[in-house]
Structures are given as structure tokens and as C-alpha cells.
Amino acid sequence: MTRLLDQPDILAPLPRVDHGLIDAIERARLVGRGGASFPVATKWRAVEHRSHGRAVVVVNGAEGEPQSKKDRLLMTTRPHLVLDGAFIAARVLRARRVILYIGERHSAARDSMLRALAQRSELERNIVTYAAAPARYVAGAEAAVIHFLNDGVATPVNIPPYPFERGVEGAPTLVQNVETLAHVAILARTGEAPNRVLITLVGGVTRPGVFEVDSRTTITQAINQSGGLTEPARAVLVGGYFGSWMDPHEAWGMRLDPSASRLGCGVIGVLPSSRCAVCEVAAIMRYLAAESSAQCGPCFFGLRALGDACTRIAGQGSNPEVLKRMQRWSAEVRARGACKHPDGAVMFLSSALQVFGDEFASHRPHAKSEQVRLSA
Amino acid sequence: MSNSILWYTTRGAGAVTLILLSSVVVLGVLSALRVQSDSWPRFLTTGLHRNLALMTLVFLALHIVTAVVDPFTNLGWAAALIPFSSGYRTLWLGLGVISFELLVAIVVTSLVRGMLGHRVWRAVHWLTYAAWPVGVVHGLGTGTDTWSAWMLAITAACVAAVGMAVALRLNAGSTDPLAPARGEFRSAVDRREAR
At A155, is the secondary structure helix, strand, or coil? Predict the structure, then answer.
């Protein structure tokens, strides 16, 4: 079994690849690991048949999800594996450019990637440029990446045109997460279908951090492998802030298989039962509201109103009127932004209202010191 | 008799088109001004704007088709589609054709706005400010009823309504409530100078 992490990062000649690799990717059912879980083969085909030698490959290492650390760790420890994936993509898609788009605060990851790049052949180095991704939540979204690389502004824009139609400088563009590219590199080298996945464990676990697990592993097994829980869990947040809360009993048996479940970017957050769920949800909703790029009214005003409503319940206690309003506003915000930011925030909130229904219905204000740190 | 029905229809549809088009322009300006009240939510402005615009085209089509098929006028289809190709009142009819074609462009780009993107759509939509006055001048120049009191009243009301709406709009400056927040966010993710 070829591993992503804990392996020497070796610079070796790339395997010969052609568009047969796309079929292999499809058979392996590889999906994007940035959060959207979009099928990789579909995206590659769309770019390939428009490319005519002018496509652009963007290596997405923005990692704007506050709890996720796996992309940074991968770029820091296996930069050549990520670059292998990027150059393999460039060959298969007949791309003329590769752009490394790395979070501006992920300096260790950037240094490691640029150091590895300096060791590559001149032919490879010549097609690569580097861009620092602004440290905001939406800056890693595909449309924001394209907008940034073209105009220097990392805000999402209207889609279509899709990046595979008109991306960087108008050329068909593949924007792919760094972990996804690493999986592609392993598939191309070994022929093994990727069956490992990087997750970030946070919250009430003994050893929080990034772990590499087999995709047949359940959440319980993954937590046990990393030292177990600190105390009984109240709920599990699967997929980070763009994901959903789950009842522990449902979450424990869930397999960490990105092609079968909504794993998002691989953040598994455990909320210990001693923590206040309402305060936690309120803090995350305020964060997501503040990360709205203020381009679409429903997102900017809607998320702010939802965050304020959560905060009001957290601070002043439960209120059936406010709860009812939150339900109504949630429905009004969904699908009304240029990007998926409002949809993600509303999905996060509705999962919270479902899992923490009792807490939201009977919450009483309490001292600030009891609040916690699952939120950024 | 059937000939005069066509002729009356042309004139009537022309007047109705003027009223509808002016309402559409006023509603478009009001939607940019974000006018609303408890009994008049904003989607009503945009919904009316859209539906009246489609209705305008229907009456405009009626206006043009009845004029062309009327054996008495003997205009021909070319005159209705190619500006200034008509031997009869070349200038005034030409202005009408231009106004009509601009409106078609504006409506068609609105129907496929999702495919075009906001920027292109908006650029074409600005042509409204050409289409409306050109249409008004066409009516003043060649309308059979132009100088009758009722038609003068209609034209004056339409011009006054559009003029007032545009004046309000010019006076209001930026009405975008998101502008400050957007500016703040943008300054955090804008790296144009750094690059």
C-alpha cells in the first residue's frame, strides 16, 4: 500500500502518461479533496478536449478552511509528490502552464514547495509560477482562484464560464487540490487505485492533528488510532465548516471514503459533551458571515442575520420566535449567491439545528469562560 | 374596412408601446434605486419590469406587423428591418427600426443573461437610454395622432415620468448597500499592487 505521508519524498523521473490515465482515474472513482468532492476524471476530460496545448493547471494549496491542516502538511513533507501530480496533469492535459497557488500564511508549505521546484528539471521549472493565496475562506474556491490569477482579486465570480471553458487568461484551466494531485501521482506511478485519505482531527480528541487513514476506516477507528476521545462526545462535525454536524452514533460507523460519503475537506471535529453546542454554532456562523465577500445581498445580509440570531440565543437564551425566523431565513438564503458560500453556511446551520434541536430549544445563557475552541 | 382596422391597430399599438416602454424604463430605474415599502417589495419592481418588457415587445410586434401588411402603406419587410431603407418618411421610420432593434437586443441578452455574464448584459442594457428616446422621437416625427391633445398628453406624461426617474437616479448616487462591505472585503483580498 503506497502511503502519502511518512514516506521519503523522492525526485524520480515521471512515468509515461497519456489520456489513458483519465480512464484509470475514473475507474478509481477519485474525487477532489478540496471540499467539493467533484469527480476528478470529469474535470480532466472537460479541460483535455478544450486544451489544444494551451491549458493551465492550478495547484490549489490555499487551504482556507480554518480547521484543516492536511494540505499544508502534505506540501511541507511531500512537495515532490504534489509536483509530480501537477506535471502529470500538465502532460495529460497538454497544459502550457502550472501555477502554484499556496495560502499566504502557509510559509513552511510554500518554502518546501519552492525548494522542491528548484530541484526539478529546467523544462519543468520553466512552466511554473507561484501565487500567494489571500488568507480568506473563499479564496480557495475555484472561481475566486481564477479571478485572483487574472485580476488580482480573490473573490468568487459568476459561473459560467466554468474554469474548464475560460480560466486563467481565458485558457481552459484545471484547478485541483494538492491532496488530489498527490493521489493522481501515486495512481500514475503504481497503478494502485487511491484508497487512502488525509483527515484532520480536531476538538475533543487526545491527539488532534492530521492523519492518513485507509478509506475503509470508520471514524471511530480513526479516532482510536489517534489516541481516542478526551471525554464522551456530543456531536461530530464532518467536513469542516462547509460540512454537517452528525449525531455521534451515526458518525462513528461512517467510513472515511470520499467517493461515498460527504467527507468534504476531511476535517473531523469532535464536540465534547461538556461544551455548549449553541455557543459553538454561533461562533462558527459569525465567522462564516464575516467571510462573505459581500457581493450578493442574500449571502451578506442573510448570513449576518443568521449569525446574529444564533448569537442572540447563545447570549440571551432560547427563543422560539428567533428559531422560527432562522428556519425561514435559511430557506431564503440557499442557492442565491454567485458562489456556494451561503449554501454551505446554511447547510452547516440546518445540520446544527437538527442535531442540537434540544439545546437550541432550551438554551440558557452562561458565563463566557465555558466557551470553546472548535471555532476559529 | 379591413384596411382601416390594420391602420388603427398600428396607431393604437404604437401608443400602447410608448406607454409600456416608458413604464419599463421607469421600473428599471426604480429597481436600481431599490425603492420599496411594506406593501411594495422589491421583487415586485423587478417582476413588473421584466413582464412589462416582454409585453412591450408583443405590442411592438403588432405595431410593426400591422404596418407592414397594411396594403395601403405598402412598406415591405425590408423597411421594417433595415434602418433608413424605407422610401416613405425615411428618417422617422428609420429611427423606429433602430429603436425596435435595440429593444430586441436588450430583451434577448436579458433572457440569456446567465450565459453571457453580468458585464456583457449590463453593457447592452445601457442601450435602453438610446432605445427609449429614439422611439419617442420616432413617434413625434411620424405619428398620425402626435398633435392630437390625448396623444400629446400621453407623450408628455411618459417623458415626464422617465425624466423624473432618471433625475432621481442621478441625484441618488450609489445606492448599493453592499458597497462599503464589499470594498472592505476586497481590500483584504486585492493583491493587484503587490504583484
Answer: coil
CA angle B167, B173, B179 (to 5 degrees): 150
Judged by a CB distance cut-off of 8 A, whether residue A155 touches chain B is yes
Q: Which residues of A21-48 are buried (b: 16+ CB within 10 A; e: fewer)?
A: bbebbeebebbbbbbebeebbebbbbbb
Distance from the Cα of B170 to chain A's closest Cα (Å) equals: 23
Q: Report CB contact under 8 Å: B189, A293.
A: yes
Mean pLDDT by 10 residues, chain B (195 residues): 82 97 97 91 94 97 93 83 88 95 96 86 95 96 91 97 96 86 92 70
| Domains of chain A as residue ranges with CATH | 20-190 (3.40.50.11540), 196-272 (3.10.20.600), 277-370 (1.20.1440.230)
Which pLDDT tens digit goes with each residue over A194-237?
A: 899 999 999 999 999 999 999 999 999 999 998 999 999 999 99
**C-alpha cell read off for A367:** 458565563
ipTM: 0.84
Residues of A in contact with B186 (CB under 8 A): 153, 155, 293
* Segment B151-180, tens digit of pLDDT: 999 999 999 999 999 999 999 888 788 889
